[in-house]
Specification:
Its cofactor is NAD(+). GO terms for molecular function: UDP-glucose 4-epimerase activity. It holds the Pfam family GDP_Man_Dehyd. Helix content is 42%, strand content 18%. With 340 residues, the chain is of the alpha/beta class. The longest helix has 22 residues, at 93-114. The protein is globular.
Length: 340
Amino acid sequence: MKILVTGGAGFIGSHTVVELHNAGYETVLVDNFSNSEKSAITGIETIIGQSVTLYEGDISEAATWDTLFTEQKIDGIIHFAANKAVGESVANPLKYYKNNISATVLMLQKMLEYGVNNLVFSSSCTVYGQPDSLPVTENSAVQPAMSPYGNTKQVCEEIIKDTVNSEKNFHAISLRYFNPIGAHDSVLIGELPLGVPANLVPFLTQSVAGLRGPLAVFGNDYPTPDGTAIRDYIHVVDLAKAHVSALDLLLKQAEGKYYDFFNIGTGQGSSVLDVINAFEEATGLKVDYSIQPRRDGDVVAVYADCTKSNEVLGWKAEKTLTEALGDAWNWQKVLVEKSK
C-alpha cells in the first residue's frame, strides 16, 4: 500500500513516515517546507535505511495534486499539512482559514476526482474548546472554538464528514491529538520550530540550552491545583503509531461509507509546573522560568479519555512524560551541536 503524507517533513509527519515504513507501508511525501526543514528528510532516510519519495509543492495548488495523483498510485492519505500556532491564528485568522480549510477542500476534491478514498486527518483536542468536564471523551461536546486555529480543525472535520456522507465509497478518520512532544530516540528527527516556539516544550528546551531567556509560564491563576494550565502531553512516536493503527482500520473497511474520530493522548493531565518538574527529573537540570499573563485563546485544562482509541484502534500510548522530556532534551542538544 502506498500512502501519501502531506506535511511529511514536519514534526509529526516525519515520525509517522518512519512508523509507516516500520509497518510495511510505502510512503510518498509532499511538503512546501514553509514550517519544516529538508534536514528532516535526511533524518528519515537514515532511520529507515532507504530514500523517500518527496514532492516539494504546495497542496493549496491544484497542479500539485494533479502531479501527485498522475505520477503515483496512492491508496490513502494522512493529512498533516496545516498552520498550527494558536497565537498566530488569533493575530492572523485569514491565513489559517486559507491554508487549513481551503487546502483541505481542494485535497478532497482531488481525492474524489482520482478515486482515492482513504483519509486520516490530523485534528486536535482544540475542537473541544474548554470542556464542561474532564477527562474529555469522544462524546464530549464540540465547543465554540477558542481560536481560529481550533475553528479550522472543527470546520475541516465537518467538511470531511459531509464528504463521506455524500459519497458511496469513502473512508475517513479524524485523530484529535492532545499535545505531542519528544523526539525519535535516534535523535535524527524531532521538532524544528521556526522563530520563537509557540509550544511549551521546545521553548523550555531552548531556554535551558541558553538560547532564550527564562521560560514564560503563561498564567498561574487558573483554577487548577497549582494555578498553571493543564494539558495531556503525548510522545510523538506514540502519536505516530496511532496513525498507523488508524490507517490499518480504514483499509479493513468494506465498500461503503465510514467515518469516525478518536482522542489520541495519554489520559493523564499535566500542568506546566508538572512538566517543568518532570524535565528537571529527566535531565538533572534546573529550569529558570517567569510567570507571565495568560495568553488569548488558551484553555484552562484539557486531557483525554482514550478508551475508544484503546479499544477500537487497538492503540495505547506507551511512553511516559519523563521519557518524552528526556528525548526532547537529547534532541535539543543535537540541534545545539549542529548550530556550532
